[in-house]
Amino acid sequence: xxxxxxxxxxxxxxxxxxxxxxxxxxxxxxxxxxxxxxxxxxxxxxxxxxxxxxxxxxxxxxxxxxxxxxxxxxxxxxxxxxxxxxxxxxxxxxxxxxxxxxxxxxxxxxxxxxxxxxxxxxxxxxxxxxxxxxxxxxxxxxxxxxxxxxxxxxxxxxxxxxxxxxxxxxxxxxxxxxxxxxxxxxxxxxxxxxxxxxxxxxxxxxxxxxxxxxxxxxxxxxxxxxxxxxxxxxxxxxxxxxxxxxxxxxxxxxxxxxxxxxxxxxxxxxxxxxxxxxxxxxxxx
Length: 285
Hints:
Elements: H1 5-70, H2 79-102, H3 108-116, H4 122-147, H5 173-194, H6 205-223, H7 229-239, H8 242-245, H9 247-268
Helix pairs in contact: 1-2, 1-4, 1-7, 2-6, 3-4, 3-5, 3-9, 4-7, 5-6, 5-9, 7-9
C-alpha cells in the first residue's frame, strides 16, 4: 500500500488529542496528591507545635506559679515539697492530655535527648524548641501579671534559676552544673526507658512525672531546679540582670545531660524496640 502522509498526520493528530486528557488528568492527580500531602504535613506540624506550646505553658505556669504564688504564702505555704509536686503534676497531666499529639516533650533538653535516642524526627527538633521557649515566655508573662496584682509583691528572683549568689543555698558554679547535668541525664534516661518496648504501656506519664518531682525535691536548694532550658528562660527574662547572665548554664547542662542520656538509652534500649508512645516517636529524616 502506498504511503498516505495525510492519513498518517490525521491518525497522529487523533491519537494526540485522545491522549492529552489522560496526561492532563494524571498531572492534575499528581498535583492534587502533592498539595494534599503538603496540607496534611502542615496540619500535623501545627497540631504538634500547639501541643508543645500548651504543655510547656502549663509546666512553667503551674510549676513556677506554685513557687511564686503559693510556696511561701502566709501560714499555708506549700513549701519545697508542694512546688516539687506541682512541677511533677504539670508534666503528668499534660503528658496524658497532649502527649499523643506531639510526644509530650515540653523541654528542649528532652527534645534533643529523644533526638539523640532516635525518637524524635529531625524536622521536629527546631520547631519544637522554638514553640517551647515561646510558651515559657508567655507563661512567665501571664504569671508576672497575676503576681504583680498584689500590692506588696516583690519578685525576689521570680522562680528563676541561678548559681553562686543566686543559688537558693549559695552553691558554687561547679556544684550547680554537675547537679543539673546529672539530674537531666536521669530524667531523659527515665523517659527513654519507660517508653521503650517492654515497659508498661500507657503508664509512662506516671514515672516521668514522679521523676520530675524527685528531681525538684533534690535540687531546689541547689539551683531552684531547671533541667529545662525553656523553663529557665521564661522567668529569667522577667527577673532580668544577673539571672539572664546565668542562663547559659541552664541551657548547656540540661542539653548535655539529655544528649548523653539519649545516646546511652539508644544503646541500652535497642532501636528496634522503640515504639511511639505518649512521649516518644520514631525519628525519621
